Every structure is written in C-alpha cells, then in structure tokens.
Amino acid sequence: MKHCLGLLLAALVTAPALAQTAAPSPCDQQLVGYATPLPAKPVWTYTRTLPAGGRVYYFGAEHSQDAAHAQFARIRQAFAETKPTIVLFEGPNRGTDSTETATISRLGESGYVRFLARQQNIPVASLENPVAEYTFLKTLFDLEQLKLFYMLREAQRLRTRTKASPEQITKAMEALLVKSAQMLPGSDQVIRTVPELAAAYRKYWPDGGNWWEAPAAWFDPAASSANTGGKFTNDINRASSEFRNQYMYRLIADKARAGQRVFAVVGRNHVPAQAPALDCALSTN
Length: 285
Description:
Keywords: Signal. By secondary structure, the chain is α/β, with parallel strands linked by helices. The chain has eleven helices and five strands, in the order H-E-E-H-E-H-E-H-H-H-H-H-H-H-E-H. Strand 1 (45-49) and strand 2 form a beta hairpin. The longest helix is centred in the C-terminal third of the chain and has 25 residues, at 233-257. 39% of the residues are buried.
C-alpha cells in the first residue's frame, strides 16, 4: 500500500460527490481477517466461471518492477486465456509506458495489466475507493495520526519501491502536503509542512530516527503496533486493508454477476483473504 495519496487525489478530482459503499452484505463475514494466519500453502490465484457467463480470474501478485520476474509471463498467458471484458487493478491509474518492459519497470504489475488491456482496447478500473476509505478511517482514528500514517507510508513506499533519496522523498512530501487539503479533507489544520511532519514524527517516536526511514514493519496489517513499535500505524493499516478487501471482492463479484469476464491483479495476500467472501457472493443470485 502504498500508493494511497495519489489514488485519493485522483478520486477526489474525478468524483462528482463523495463515493459511498454498499449496504452490509452477509458475505462480508466470510472475509479472512488479518488476525487469522494465512494457510500454510496459500492459493494466490482465484478463478470462477458462472453459469450465466461471467468469469473471474483473480491473480495475487508479488509487488515487483522487475520485467524478468516469472509472474509477468503467467499474467500475460492468463490474460490471453481469460479474454477479459474488464481489467481491474490495485492502486491508482498511473497509465502505462511505451513498451512492456518500460511499463513494468516504472509501474509494476498494475501498470502491466493496464498495458495488456490497452493493447486490446479493454476498459480498466481501480479496485479501490479511497474517498470512502478515508471517510471511514476518520471515524476510527485521530486526524493527526491518520495524516501522519498516510505521509509516512508514502515515504516508506518511495524509499523501498523506487529507491528515492531523502531529498527526493522530502520534495514529494512537500508537494503532497500542499495538496493535502484536497486529498485529505479536514486535515489542513494538522501537519501542513515538512518541519511539522518531522515534529509530529518526533512527538510519537522521539527515538525513532528519521521520519523518512519508518520501517516497513510498521505498515504490515497482520502485525501489532505494540510489537513493531508503530504505535498506531499497523492498526490504521489493518483497518485500511480490511476496508479495501471488502470493497474489492464486492466490485469483482458485481462485475462477474453482470456477465463480465473479470481479470484482476492485486498484492497476493488479498486473494486468500477475499476468496471465501467471493465464493459466497458469486453463489448468491
């Protein structure tokens, strides 16, 4: 996760009104929570064909920008076999690059499925609803902690995924903070500048080193904030991930029940977490 601020901004710019989630479904109870360990041998791919013609191919990917990674050949083959009518991906729509290799190198697996879809003129859509997610999280967490979480998680993503330098991360945070009133409505009274970001970080982690070096373990939804030292970051990430799991499986099920051949790619742990709920939803008329 990883990409939340850019996705939230895109959603707020394009959405005419605040997006709302559907009413609770009995199938929501089938989602596997993050407190439950994954099976010893998780199944990272979910497939289902419906009698009315809808189909789901749901691929759990490793987050990778290495074009030589074997998963990209598997994605390409599955895409050709599925013949999708819609492609769903995790994160914001950052478009594609000019070639397959360049797209993977810059945009990873989510960019790659958009690249494949573009070649066939197949519509694409994100598997996330960041506006509704942010609205939900505001009901559970302190606004300063929530904004700090978003900023630190994005800094950690830039540091680990793109190998950005501290100077590059700082510039990215400056740009995001300028837009934060739009991206994170109501948060413009807290953490408005990078110095204020650094001060908020020191407030919670006085001995935590540099804010741009927040450990990846702090953003593991299956871990405890008390155990990782994240104080509240793991708790927020768990609530975020559980919200996203619910939204993802519902969207996939709705498309398949409408007769679409759905090809979806996400970070792999989402698939076993959502599979029982998908089974439930796809078995419901």
